[in-house]
């Protein structure tokens, strides 16, 4: 009796796990193409151009395919028509958007990603400038696993460069007190170069943080940050092992935002003339560096205000447990003219000399 | 019948099983979709308020379960309402149970269809659920009731998955503000009603009073189950609010499922493929439980309650149940508007039943007691 029961259980498990007789959507690995990378760009007026990297089965070669269509799902259908295997988006991990497309508004393309239950919310998003499709074609020829390498690159960085996924983008998009931002890449001399952060107002890209300022943007964008290298070329110094903690609060008395940045690190490289072993000179050096930093960050925030975007979610600090000071669209209106105070607390644990002179 | 004998050997349920019953019956429908309904961070207070109301309401239920009539089962109801009224009331009772259980089942099937199997009909899983529920019901009420332990163990661990959403970077505690509303939004009474319905379910225990071992302290166990449900609702609601913010949350149909999909373990992704099917244990318990209720209601309505138990009644109840769910799912649950309509129906029905059943029974018992002492 026990044997019969065991056989019955095994049999039903086998039948049920197969399930292919129930479902018209079969997912035999050799018959499908689960892509991990997709690139969307604008072509012509309202046409969408979709480029994907086709994964290889066994001895095939990887290919890069491009099709045009009016909507994202239409391009997927067309991709099925031109390729031997059906495309599945269950493994999609990265979506690159061309700068033109980003400037024209992206929410109508992202909405379908949210609706599609196959696609994970952890999909990395990025804006790319230049001929990315051509670049991909070239790279896939040179390095077979280039799409995977790119994915690893995204996975690796956190709080050092901008790195956003669909979840965070949409959360910032729908919030009254935040504007989304995405990493900005540029195809430059056959290299994919990180060139700062693309800033969005609603779903349209309106500008960017240039690469020189991007580290400072990361410092005030993330509550905790860790930066192995922070160069200050004009002070001839490079700080290393920098950890930052930032606080944003609303000063109700003065009606302005206060950003406090606590920064700790060490001098990794110094090529200037000051004798950092001397206490007075070292103190002066630190003070100057601090003022320099405050000015840079102040200027950065001012540029955000000029664009009327709030990627820092500074608006959220104006909400108290009992009321919203600037409900609805009000924050968007007051933010550009809001006075912002920046305070930097700089602690350098090591000035680059093993033992300071007395 | 073998199963019934087996059940008789199982004996009575200890009072300590009460909290599991209350908890699992309450969370059945709303655990996956409640945060979407609540919309604003300050609704966390509403959960507490309605939870407290339900807490005191359970005192009525406990009081009823302590009465002599509840201990007698069918005989008690006959004593209370009379033979004829009991038989007549069994029919709408069966219909209510069928309605509620089909809405709960179809809602679950709808979610699995939406998230896991979009290419097949949502009723594909129904035969499987039906067979499992019948199997469970075949063991009789005492054993099926004890299965609540499995239903609890099978679905409570999911709470643990949500703890990670209370920490940055996903969680942003400023999304919880403002915690006290300047003005209530117009849908608040509706939300309170919804919450009341979300805490309904324990009323079914009113009909199985004779299955519990006699003894005091029932109320404490019931209240514990209620407190656990409230804690679960608050935890899920906070996790969803912290990670989505209330504006984005409003755009999502099933924010809880969406959040499960966001979990990425180092060795495993797409946890919804595990979490949703495992949830089925809970629904199998509920449906097995409800099929037994329908069986007893049929017997009472047909006037066969005092005759020895026969398997025909169970078969009839099982077939009736699956026919009901199938017809409703096939013809009256085809579009999203109909879905919303049924959720609405459930809200009113379950809310009303939870409010009325225990109070009515307690009143009836008190009235009868007074009449018999006066005589």
Describe the protein.
- The complex is a heterodimer of chains A (358) and B (375).
- By secondary structure, chain A is an alpha/beta fold.
- Chain A has 2 domains: 31-209, no CATH class; 223-358, GMP Synthetase, Chain A, domain 3 (2-Layer Sandwich), CATH 3.30.300.
- Helices cover 33% and strands 32% of the residues of chain A.
- Chain A has helices at 2-18, 72-82, 99-104, 107-115, 132-142, 146-156, 166-174, 211-221, 279-307, 330-334, and strands spanning 32-34, 37-43, 47-54, 63-69, 86-88, 94-98, 124-129, 164-165, 181-188, 191-201, 204-209, 224-232, 237-251, 256-270, 340-350.
- In chain A, strands 2, 3, 4, 6, 7, 8, 9, 10 and 11 form a 9-stranded mixed beta sheet that branches.
- In chain A, strand 9 and strand 10 (191-201) form a beta hairpin.
- In chain A, helix 8 (211-221) crosses helix 9 (279-307).
- The longest helix of chain A is centred in the C-terminal third of the chain and has 29 residues, at 279-307.
- The model of chain A has no long low-confidence stretch (mean pLDDT 87).
- Chain B has 375 residues and is mainly α.
- Chain B has one domain: Amino acid/polyamine transporter I.
- Helices cover 71% and strands 0% of the residues of chain B.
- Chain B is built from 17 helices and no strands.
- In chain B, helix 7 runs antiparallel to helix 15.
- Chain B is globular.
- Mean pLDDT of chain B is 87; it is low at 1-9.
- The chains are: A alpha/beta (358), B mainly alpha (375).
- The interface between A and B is medium-sized, with 28 and 32 residues.
């Amino acid at each position: 009796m026990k044997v019969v029961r065991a056989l019955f259980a095994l049999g039903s498990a086998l039948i049920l796990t197969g399930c292919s007789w129930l479902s018209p959507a079969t997912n035999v690995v050799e018959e499908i193409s689960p892509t991990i990378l997709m690139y969307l760009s604008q072509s012509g007026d309202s046409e969408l151009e979709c480029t994907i990297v086709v994964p290889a089965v066994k001895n095939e070669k990887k290919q890069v395919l491009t099709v045009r269509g009016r909507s994202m799902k239409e391009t997927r259908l067309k991709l099925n028509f031109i390729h031997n295997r059906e495309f599945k988006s269950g493994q999609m991990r990265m979506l690159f958007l061309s700068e033109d497309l980003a400037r024209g508004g992206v929410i109508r393309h992202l909405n379908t990603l949210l609706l599609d239950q196959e696609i994970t919310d952890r999909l990395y998003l990025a804006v790319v400038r230049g001929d990315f499709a051509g670049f991909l074609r070239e790279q896939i020829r040179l390095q077979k696993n280039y799409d995977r390498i790119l994915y690893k690159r995204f996975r690796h960085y956190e709080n050092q460069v901008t790195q956003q996924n669909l979840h965070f983008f949409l959360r910032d998009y729908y919030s009254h007190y935040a504007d989304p931002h995405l990493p900005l890449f540029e195809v430059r001399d056959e290299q994919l170069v990180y060139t700062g952060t693309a800033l969005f107002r609603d779903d349209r890209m309106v500008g960017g943080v240039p690469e020189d300022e991007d580290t400072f943007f990361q410092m005030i964008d993330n509550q905790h940050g860790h930066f192995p290298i922070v160069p200050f070329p004009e002070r001839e110094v490079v700080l290393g092992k920098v950890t930052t903690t930032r606080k944003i609060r609303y000063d109700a008395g003065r009606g302005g935002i206060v950003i406090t940045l606590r920064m700790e690190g060490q001098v990794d490289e110094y090529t200037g003339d000051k004798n950092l072993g001397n206490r007075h000179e070292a103190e002066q050096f630190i003070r100057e560096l601090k003022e320099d930093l405050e000015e840079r960050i102040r200027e950065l925030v001012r540029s955000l205000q000029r664009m009327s975007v709030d990627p820092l979610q500074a608006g959220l600090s104006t909400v108290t447990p009992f009321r919203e000071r600037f409900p609805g669209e009000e924050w968007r209106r007051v933010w550009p003219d809001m006075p912002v105070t920046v305070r930097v607390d700089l602690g350098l644990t090591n000035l680059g000399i093993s033992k300071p002179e007395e | 019948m073998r199963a019934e004998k087996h059940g008789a050997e199982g004996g009575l349920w200890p009072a300590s099983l009460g909290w599991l019953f209350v908890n699992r019956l309450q969370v059945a429908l709303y655990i996956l979709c409640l945060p979407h309904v609540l919309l604003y961070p300050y609704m966390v207070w509403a959960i507490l308020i309605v939870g407290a109301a339900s807490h005191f309401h359970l005192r009525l239920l406990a009081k009823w379960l302590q009465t002599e009539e509840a201990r007698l089962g069918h005989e008690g109801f006959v004593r209370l309402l009379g033979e004829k009224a009991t038989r007549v009331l069994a029919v709408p009772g069966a219909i209510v149970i069928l309605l509620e259980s089909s809405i709960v089942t179809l809602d679950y099937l709808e979610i699995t269809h939406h998230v896991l199997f979009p290419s097949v009909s949502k009723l594909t899983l129904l035969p499987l659920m039906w067979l499992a529920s019948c199997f469970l019901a075949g063991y009789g009420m005492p054993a099926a009731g004890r299965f609540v332990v499995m239903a609890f163990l099978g679905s409570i661990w999911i709470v643990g998955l949500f703890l990670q959403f209370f920490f940055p970077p996903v969680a942003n505690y400023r999304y919880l503000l403002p915690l006290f509303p300047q003005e209530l939004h117009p849908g608040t009474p509706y939300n309170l009603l919804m919450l009341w319905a979300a805490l309904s379910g324990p009323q079914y225990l009113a009909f199985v009073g004779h299955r519990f071992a006699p003894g005091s302290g029932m109320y404490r166990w019931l209240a514990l189950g209620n407190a656990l449900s409230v804690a679960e609702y608050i935890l899920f609601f906070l996790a969803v609010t912290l990670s989505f913010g209330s504006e984005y949350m409003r755009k999502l149909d099933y924010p809880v499922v969406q959040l499960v999909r966001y979990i990425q373990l180092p060795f495993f992704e797409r946890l919804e493929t595990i979490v949703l099917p495992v949830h089925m244990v809970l629904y199998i318990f509920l449906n097995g439980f409800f099929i037994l209720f329908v069986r007893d209601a049929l017997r009472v309505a047909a006037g066969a309650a005092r005759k020895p138990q026969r398997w025909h009644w169970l078969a009839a109840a099982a077939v009736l149940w699956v026919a009901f769910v199938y017809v409703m799912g096939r013809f009256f649950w085809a579009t999203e508007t109909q879905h919303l309509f049924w959720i609405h129906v459930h809200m009113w029905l379950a809310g009303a039943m939870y409010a009325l059943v225990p109070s009515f029974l307690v009143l009836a018992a008190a009235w009868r007691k007074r009449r018999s002492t006066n005589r």
